[in-house]
Design a protein that fits this description.
6-stranded mixed sheet; Deoxyribonuclease I, Chain A; 283 residues; alpha+beta
Amino acid sequence: MKLVTWNIQWGRGVDGRVDLDRIAAHARRFADFDVLCLQEVSAGYPELPGCDGSDQFEALAARFPGFTRIDGVATDTPHPSGGRRRFGNLVLSRLPVRQVFRHLLPWPADSTVPSMQRIALESNLDTPQGPVRVTTTHLEYYSAWQRAAQVERLRELHREACAHAASPRPGTPDEGPFDRVARAAPSLLAGDFNFMPDSPEHVRLMTPIDPTTTSYRDAWECLHPGKPRAPTVALHDRSQFPGPPFTWDFVFVSEDLVPRLRDVQVDAASDASDHQAVMVEWA
């Protein structure tokens, strides 16, 4: 099974064009994925450079027939000219989707920098090897304080999910909202974290939580220990990022999935966004 995560910058490539057909084509070229996690998906934002304001959640889903669409709207505000503006993450899955959680992440007040509401979009998926929990997120860029709070919340959500998996609540299927839908312990956490591989946030996310909760591990470090990391930013977009290429995009896996990891790659060829897509394969 393969998962691809990609910050698509609302479909805006290095050439300044917003082209969702190009996004879809580059994603398919990179991997025959079972799950596609996208960040920076927009609807109702014609003011974004190159954007026509159309609903990209709907448009991207239409380009992947046979996949279940899961919207993760973090920002939902009125547009000054009418209608609403939405911005966030999108998961497309051809694996069966069980329960979905939309966790708004902490947003402590920080008047010193711009910021926006962030979300962790959790999808519990059925796989041939059993249930797997896939969460995609995009952490705060400007505020280190907010980003640190969001890392703590991701750790708490993982602890909560593992506890649910270990101690299922009573009930039977078809009990309405009390339906006992399983929440998976094995977990992949993917997205644009806006921190570097040597940052305190990276270390904190993988720090053990408690004896009953599996720790997160960096998939790249598991499969390529001691090797230089393939960068995910500043390969092609030199106007926004004039310095050396670096990494903000990661896939973390819970320790129980580490033996099942088979591959992790970065798509260095694509210039369809300011970020590069990351693919992880597990058995």
